[in-house]
Specification:
Largest sheet: 8 strands, parallel, barrel
CATH class of the largest domain: Alpha Beta
CATH topology of the largest domain: TIM Barrel
Shape: globular
Structural class: alpha/beta
CATH superfamily of the largest domain: Glycosidases
Distance between the termini: 39 Å
Number of helices: 6
Length: 267
Amino acid sequence: MSQDTFYIPILPQQLRALQGWDVTPAHLAYRVGRGPHLFRSGGAVPLKGGLMVLDNRGFDGLGPLAPFCQEVVRECLARSFSGAVLDFEGRTPPLEQMASQLDGIFARRGWSLFVPEPYGHCAPHAKVLIPSALSGGSLALRLEEAAERFGRNRVALSLQRTAEDFFLPSPSGSGVSLTREELRERLDRFRPSVFFSRELCARYFTYMSRESGAHFVLFDDGDTLCRKLEVARRAGIHTFLAPWAEVEEHAGQLGLPRTAPQMKNIR
């Protein structure tokens, strides 16, 4: 039986919360800046081990990429990181080239690289992140299609606790994101009947607004996140990216492993 591996994106100032959990932190502290150069946030919090999470906010697409990739390598060596997560939004040729170069460098060093699905084709050694949130279709079929496209051993599930409010009809399939407080407010105000979608592994309800008409709300809770993990496991996928901000209150329910208690010496 394959063992689950959980990577936990987390802010540097929250790292203490992972004490007692046998998981790998993915540090939300890095971005690609102009130049390009590697920029780090998080203040004086010491980072050691785990993965670097690298986003592309502030990158203008200009400048040579090879020196930047070496900056990434030096930081990983200095911090004893075992890999990186490329949290790239959008898809551009410079970012594709960056992913490709880092993929080759990391593979030669035996480091892990995680990339968004649109970058899977240009980083053949990397794990490809498939989001758990869907607004249509079937999560099981989505994961099977990804496994056929990239290879089952390359697919990782990016766990997302989401809540979205859709106007009906919704031809674009895009909704408005809700905070947990906004979701609770709608549940309290409209007291709707809540249903579960087996295909999406999510809960949903509808309501009517005098101002804007019919709405459809799709959301996650601890139970739906567990169902999504179960679907991934049945598909042979056992690598999960689970942001701490979204799974903290459900960590035990989701099966995040605990560290073994240390035995005290008995004299």
